[in-house]
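Reading group handout, session on sequence-to-structure problems. Before we discuss, look at one worked example. The prompt was deliberately terse, the way you'd type it at a terminal:

> structure DUF177 domain-containing protein

The input record follows.
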Amino acid sequence: MLDTSDPVWEADDTRPAGAGVHVTGRLSAAGHGRFYLSGRLEGAAVTECRRCLSEVTVAVSEDVHMLFAESGLDDADEQDVFPIPAGARELDIRPAVREEWLLAVPAFALCREDCLGFCATCGADRNTGACTCAPTTDPRWAGLRDLRGSDA
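And the output record:
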């Protein structure tokens, strides 16, 4: 379990809600100085709706596969390998879990599928009612509208 108050989290991270991130899996030796973790992380994240900016709690559940290697080995500097400090007697998976969590949290959440969001003209929340703005059309489509009108 990676708690929401753990110091591994950074200021701008999308932190887990409630109890934190629950991690299950199996850690296996993968050669000299290398370890492989295959498992699953689960939790809930609080984020904003991409259309109306209301707070949304989304479930996060993801299979994870992480490779750890001792510093100084050939592949320890690769981007997808998590380094193990030389001489370490314990494996700290918290930074790896944090990174996998941030990748698993949806980048664009919706409060509901039919969320109407804000009016682009006046900024009114269209989920609470219609605004008084006239419908606008994108001027970039004017050429196609003209073609459609000339064929009719």
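Points for discussion. First: The mean pLDDT is 87. Second: The chain has two domains: 1-115, 118-152.
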